[in-house]
Design goal:
The protein contains four helices and no strands. The protein has 117 residues and is mostly helical.
């Protein structure tokens, strides 16, 4: 194959990604790292701006609006689901109370047996 003479001011892309324009060549960035293309204009600085702190009332109103927006996203259970979950919780709590009471009585009897009355 013959070497093509390079045009002045133009570099030959070294990889397929460079040829497709997917990345900027390392020679143009000077670091050897892959760089992303620039957007063409600088981001305006915020140094000259003074930030005003919103009032307590406006912050409260914003908070309430955000709470309402989040509550609209909630999938609320149906009445049947609420009743079912309530029954399950009550049965579980009753079982745990009975278990703890039984263990308390067993350990109490064990202590009385060991140490007497």
């Amino acid at each position: 194959m013959s070497e093509e003479p390079e045009q002045p001011g133009r570099e030959r892309p070294s990889t397929a990604a460079d040829r497709r324009g997917k990345r900027v060549s390392p020679a143009s960035t000077g670091t050897g790292a892959v760089a992303t293309p620039r957007k063409g204009r600088p981001t305006p600085s915020r140094d000259g701006r003074t930030e005003r702190k919103p009032s307590v009332f406006s912050r409260l109103v914003r908070f309430i609006r955000e709470v309402v927006a989040e509550l609209r996203k909630v999938i609320w259970p149906t009445r049947k689901q609420v009743v079912t979950y309530t029954i399950v919780v009550l049965v579980f709590v009753s079982f745990m109370v009975a278990l703890v009471s039984l263990l308390d009585w067993v350990f109490g009897q064990g202590v009385l047996f060991l140490f007497g009355t």
